[in-house]
Design a protein that fits this description.
Number of domains: 1
Largest sheet: 7 strands, mixed
CATH topology: Spore Coat Polysaccharide Biosynthesis Protein SpsA, Chain A
Distance between the termini: 6 Å
CATH superfamily: Spore Coat Polysaccharide Biosynthesis Protein SpsA, Chain A
Radius of gyration: 18 Å
CATH architecture: Alpha-Beta Complex
CATH class: Alpha Beta
Number of helices: 8
């Protein structure tokens, strides 16, 4: 059994501003289940407790990893408080806001490092219904290597209106048209993957720190010939707070789509050494104080 993974938990300063990285806690001693559910957070204090309770209450064996980018609203404090009552919840707090794509790379590295079989990722703002997690897992059990929660297949839907609806539909339609792949959904983060089927390093080495990470990851997985299933989901407006998608990320996404369409080679490395995984987990932007040991 691996020794505990020691993570620094933030403490609010007396003025109520940013947090100080002084408290520490041990959050688990290796995987207690076959699945890891991953959440990237920034200012999700109003949503995170309800989401964690919903996931922990599902009839599945799954641990949870939260990577928080030092949210000033106390998101990490809320996660730490919940983690005190269960060993299924893990937390990494990064010093700065480093991007949702880079957070997901950490999640993939953590899942591989601790020997999980399946990784599930979703948004932390309650726009993705955690009750759909068993449906994604069912597709994995039926033989899929990668399952995507899709808003654009029959039975799926989303609550966007106006320009947001147009932009979302257009991005995914253009992805299908330009990339010549038989998929309807490219940009959602709601997905499940069999880690023994996805080549090590294929996702962990994607050089996108923002939202373009998700389309690139989907394309990488499709182009290495893995079996992909799309599961219809209903995407809801976030329950509280504000969208973290800046306008310049939309333009970056368009540039990334054109790049992927022009060069049809996989834009990822399909191999990675253990040291690369350790580098992700021990990045200077993380508050990890001791590297985890490989599970025997």
């Amino acid at each position: 059994m691996a020794p505990p993974y020691e993570i620094r938990i933030p403490r609010a300063d007396k003025a109520g501003g940013n947090v100080e990285h002084e408290m520490t806690t041990n959050v688990g001693a290796g995987p207690s289940s076959r699945c890891l559910v991953f959440l990237a957070t920034y200012n999700e204090c109003a949503n995170i407790a309800s989401l964690l309770d919903a996931i922990l209450g599902l009839p599945i064996q799954a641990d949870i990893l939260v990577v928080d980018d030092n949210s000033p609203d106390g998101t990490a404090l809320s996660v730490a408080a919940r983690a005190a009552s269960t060993d299924r919840l893990h937390l990494i707090v990064r010093h700065t806001r480093a991007g949702v794509g880079s957070a997901h790379r950490v999640g993939w590295a953590f899942a591989r490092r601790f020997g999980y079989r399946i990784l599930i990722t979703l948004d932390a703002d309650l726009s993705h219904d955690p009750c759909d997690i068993p449906r994604l897992l069912a597709e994995i059990d039926r033989g899929a290597d990668f399952a995507i929660g899709s808003r654009f297949v029959k039975g799926g839907g989303l609550e966007y209106t106006g320009l947001r609806l147009l932009a979302s539909r257009s991005a995914n339609w253009l992805g299908r048209f330009l990339l010549w792949l038989p998929l309807h959904e490219y940009t959602t983060s709601y997905r499940a993957a069999r880690l023994d089927r996805v080549p090590a390093g294929l996702i962990e080495t994607i050089d996108q720190d923002g939202y373009a990470f998700f389309m690139t990851a989907t394309v990488c997985i499709a182009r290495v010939g893995l079996k992909i299933a799309e599961v219809p989901i209903h995407f809801r407006e976030r329950a509280s707070g504000f969208s973290k998608l800046p306008r310049w990320e939309i333009f970056r996404g368009i540039i990334n789509l054109v790049r992927l369409a022009i060069d049809r080679r996989v834009h990822c490395h399909s191999t990675v050494v253990i040291g690369s995984l350790e580098n992700l987990l021990e990045s200077p932007t993380n508050t990890t104080t001791r590297a985890p040991q490989r599970t025997q």
